[in-house]
Amino acid sequence: MMQLSVLDLVPVREGGTVAEAFAAATDLARTAETEGYHRFWVAEHHAMEGIAGGATAVVLSHLGNATSTIRIGAGGIMLPNHTPFQIAEQFGTLDALFPGRIDLGLGRAPGAGPELQRALRKDLGAASQYFPQDVVELRALLTGDVELPIAATPGLGAKVELWMLGSSLFGAQLAAKLGLPYAFASHFAPDHLDEALEIYRRDFQPSQTLDRPHVMAGMQVICADTDEDARLLSSSQAQAFVRLRSGNPGKLPPPIEDYRETLPAPARAMLVHLEQAAAVGSPGTVREKIEAFVTRTQADEIIVAGSTYEPEARCRSLELTQHAITELHAA
Asked: InterPro entries, per this entry (predicted)?
């Protein structure tokens, strides 16, 4: 049966605080656990006033204490921002605190300008070139499958589930070569989805932890009682996308009725383009769109993203979405 998971950016809304964002993420994780979602992932972003998940391992530690059974993880850690040893220690610690529940999704794109590079004391362009070697080193620090001159404590022996993330063909090729599960960021970059999944499945080489390909694909999902209510709620995320692509990111804005009608044609076209990996509407609409997307991708899991201005609306969206998919499987 296809599984549902949750991706959260820990959004900070206009008029809100970082502390409120963490409280909302905690409520969302508890809702996801109660409703039977498989994983709850937090994404690493830096120097963005509208996203509070930069210290990802710290956030996950808090969420682990607030939940008891749901898998928690990074979706993902941008490895060029760090050293493999640091990440092995951090996620080895998380595994010791919450055994059998920790995922570590790894991404290559640093997404950082010169100011952030200076703040991180990293040449991220050069670091990105060593990404494949760093992934292998990180896995060895956790598993000991390659003898290294230093051991991570905590870290060595941790049962962390490693994932490769991607929005292009590079991640698919590396995931296949290393025998890792693969998560594609189609919720914001759907262009290479079909080709990437074909390459991953075609070239997959079994590993000690995975004997066959395993795909998770991202969707923007906002579910409400009616299509009209869901479209209104989703306008906050739409505004955030437009602002980000315009180089003017900020805090999550409140919803606006008929927001798209106020936009110039290129911005409307961008939002329409993203809809190929989106499900916004009533439970029936969301069920239909997720079913069509799974038929297209044959994904083993869907990870649902999408922020709402009112945190309670996203908790309600998770509830309605899970119930809709449960009905689909029953049918």
From this structure: Bact_Lucif_Oxidored, CmoO-like, Luciferase-like_dom, Luciferase-like_sf
Q: Is the pLDDT of residue 112 over 70?
A: no
Pair 134, 79: CB distance under 8 Å: yes
SS3 (DSSP) at 72: strand
- The pairing of strands 301-305 and 39-42 is unpaired
- pLDDT digit string (tens) for 22-80? 999 999 999 999 999 999 999 999 888 999 999 999 999 999 999 999 999 999 999 99
CA-to-CA distance for 303 and 292, rounded, in angstroms?
15
Dihedral sign, Cα of residue 205, residue 208, residue 213, residue 215: negative
Helix (H) or strand (E) holding 39: strand 39-42
Q: Which residue has the tokens 């292009």?
A: 168
Q: Pairing mode, if any, of strands 3-8 and 301-305?
A: parallel
How does pLDDT run across 243-286, given as a tens digit for each residue? Answer: 999 989 999 999 999 999 999 999 999 999 999 999 999 999 99
Tokens of 288: 């239909």
**CATH superfamily of the domain spanning 3-330:** Luciferase-like domain (3.20.20.30)
From the CA atom positions of the chain, what is the Rg in Å? 19
- Token pair belonging to 261: 């009608």
What are the sequence ranges of the domains in the chain? Answer: 3-330
